[in-house]
Amino acid sequence: MKVRDIRAGQAAIIAAGCLFMTGAAWADDAPATPAPDATVAPAPASTAPVAPVPAQAPASTAPAAPVPAQAPASAAPVAPVPAPAAAPVSAPASAAEAPAEPPVSDATRAERLMASQVGLLRFTSAGFHRGLVRHIVLFRFLPTITDDQRAEVVRRFMALARTSRREDGSPVVVSIETGAQISGEGVDDGLQQGFVVTFRSEGDRNYYVGRPVVTDPAYFDPAHEAFKKFAAPYIVTTLVFDYAVAPAHPQRQAPVQTGHAAQVPQQQG
Q1: What residue ranges do the domains of the chain occupy?
Q2: How many C-beta neighbours within 10 Å does residue 51 have?
Q3: ∠ CA(239), CA(211), CA(223), 5° rounding?
Q4: What residues contact 179, with CB distance under 8 A and at least 6 apart?
Q5: What is the spatial distance between Cα 92 and Cα 205, in angstroms, rounded to a whole number?
Q6: How confident is the model at residue 264 (pLDDT cuts 50, 70, 90)?
Q7: C-beta separation of 136 from 242 below 8 A
Q8: Contact between 211 and 124 (Cβ < 8 Å)
Q9: Phi/psi at 61 (nearest 5 deg)?
Q10: pTM of the entire structure?
Q11: Given pLDDT bands bounded at 50, 70 and 90, which one contains residue 9?
Q12: First CA to last CA across the chain, in angstroms?
């Protein structure tokens, strides 16, 4: 029995040695686990659930809307653009247009009636209604007029004493006086400059004035007409007053014969 026990113990030892050798060989083949680094803390495993990535929507398989074709250009003929009308030439020394003519007064109608009855040739002749006539003209100037512009208006008005002439060269104006308003009565109505023009007859006055009484250029003074067009943009108000100058000494009447004695009428006034 002892020999049997010894042999059994030897077999057990041999078997244990084989197992030991097998385990050692397996340990040599397994990868070595690195030692943990004390300086680097291991990151804790995230416990948050990972959100599922939504599946992309499949591309639309609907057919694309067709692009509408552009309408062809109209073949209708283009209407011609009318050419702009030529702008009227403005008055000299100002871009503003001359003010519209005032409505015809009763005095203008009366003078036109007389002109139509006697004819323009006689109405504007030097011998029509002889006798001195005063033609008074008063101006109120534009508030923005400069001193130079006002002086030029006055200068051109005064020059009419030389430039206002008939076709044969004979003068129309006897004299022209002018002056600025200096009255303190307060009834000047804003008028600033006055002129007194003297004529030898109403016919000369009619030829000088021209419009609105005489509208035919053949029967009025072109120099005065040009002055009116120049001065109009600078003037706000114009006042005109004409009167015939009574003779200083009335003509003596011829003696009246009655029977055999001659009687001389007494002078009146």
Answers
A1: 106-244
A2: 6
A3: 95
A4: 193, 194
A5: 26
A6: very low
A7: yes
A8: no
A9: -100, 5
A10: 0.57
A11: low
A12: 205
**pLDDT tens sequence across 19-45:** 555 555 444 555 555 444 544 444 444
Contacts of 237-241 with C-beta under 8 Å, sequence gap 24+, read: 237/138, 237/139, 237/140, 237/189, 237/190, 237/191, 238/137, 238/138, 238/139, 238/140, 239/137, 239/138, 239/189, 239/191, 240/135, 240/136, 240/137, 240/138, 241/136
Q: How far apart are CA 197 and CA 208, in angstroms?
A: 10
3-state secondary structure 83-116: CCCCCCCCCCCCCCCCCCCCCCCHHHHHHHHHHH
pLDDT for 232-254, tens place per residue? 999 999 999 999 999 887 666 66
Does residue 143 have a pLDDT over 70?
Answer: yes
Find out whether 211 and 238 touch, Cβ atoms under 8 Å.
Answer: no
Supply the pLDDT for residue 104.
87
Architecture in CATH for domain 106-244: 2-Layer Sandwich (3.30)
Full strand arrangement of the beta sheet holding 235-244: 175-180, 193-201, 130-141, 235-244
d(CA 184, CA 47): 110
The amino acid at 52: P
Residue with tokens 């029995």: 1
Which of 210, 182, 208, 176 has its CA nearest to residue 195? 176
